[in-house]
């Protein structure tokens, strides 16, 4: 029993470290301050063009059709033919009835992360065992912003489909197998909430 608990603690620490490594460490702001003025102008033009494109695109992702409601089974994320959304999109597949995740609470999640366009999985707690969960303290800022924002308001027993644009994910620099500018889809299962 002690070995199993220790193994879970090591796994949770490894996952947390990998997600923490993806968080904002302030270097982006420092780089922006030291960049030449022409770079800033080009970036502004790109941002304005992106904002204009966002206004003409639908603000919601495809519905959660095809994702299992069975919380005992790892969900599969289908690919999407729709243009990626401009903002965070959250859709409850199963509405939980237990304790609610709020600012400051620590939650235990099962998750599958995939690329929005292809549905190709890049990470999953399920691949490490059906009992493995990821601990996250809501509001602590140790995971990507879109992931953390998507947890807030979830209730234990819920399954949620989340589409995260790159600016709320890993940004233009990417991380590990995730390229810069990638829109991501997660399916989150809320297993436990602790105050």
TrEMBL record:
Protein's UniProt keywords contain Oxidoreductase: no
UniProt region (Disordered), positions on chain: 26-84
Molecular functions per Gene Ontology: peptidyl-prolyl cis-trans isomerase activity
UniProt-listed Enzyme Commission number(s): 5.2.1.8
Taxonomy, superkingdom: Bacteria
Residue span, PPIase FKBP-type domain: 104-194
Annotated transmembrane regions: none
Name of protein: Peptidyl-prolyl cis-trans isomerase
Species annotation: Blastococcus colisei
């Amino acid at each position: 029993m002690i070995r199993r608990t220790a193994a879970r603690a090591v796994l949770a620490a490894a996952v947390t470290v990998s997600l923490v490594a993806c968080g904002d460490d302030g270097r982006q702001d420092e780089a922006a301050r030291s960049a030449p003025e022409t770079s800033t102008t080009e970036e502004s033009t790109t941002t304005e063009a992106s904002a204009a494109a966002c206004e003409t695109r639908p603000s919601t992702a495809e519905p959660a059709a095809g994702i299992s409601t069975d919380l005992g089974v790892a969900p599969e994320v289908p690919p999407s033919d729709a243009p990626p959304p401009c903002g965070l999109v959250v859709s409850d597949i199963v509405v939980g009835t237990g304790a609610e995740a709020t600012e400051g609470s620590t939650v235990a999640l099962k998750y599958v992360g995939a690329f929005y366009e292809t549905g190709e999985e890049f990470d999953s707690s399920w691949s490490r065992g059906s009992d493995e969960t990821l601990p996250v303290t809501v509001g602590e800022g140790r995971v990507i912003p879109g992931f953390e924002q998507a947890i807030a308001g979830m209730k234990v027993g819920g399954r949620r489909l989340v589409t995260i644009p790159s600016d709320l994910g890993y940004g233009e620099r990417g991380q590990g197998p995730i390229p810069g500018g990638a829109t991501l889809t997660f399916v989150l299962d809320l297993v436990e909430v602790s105050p």
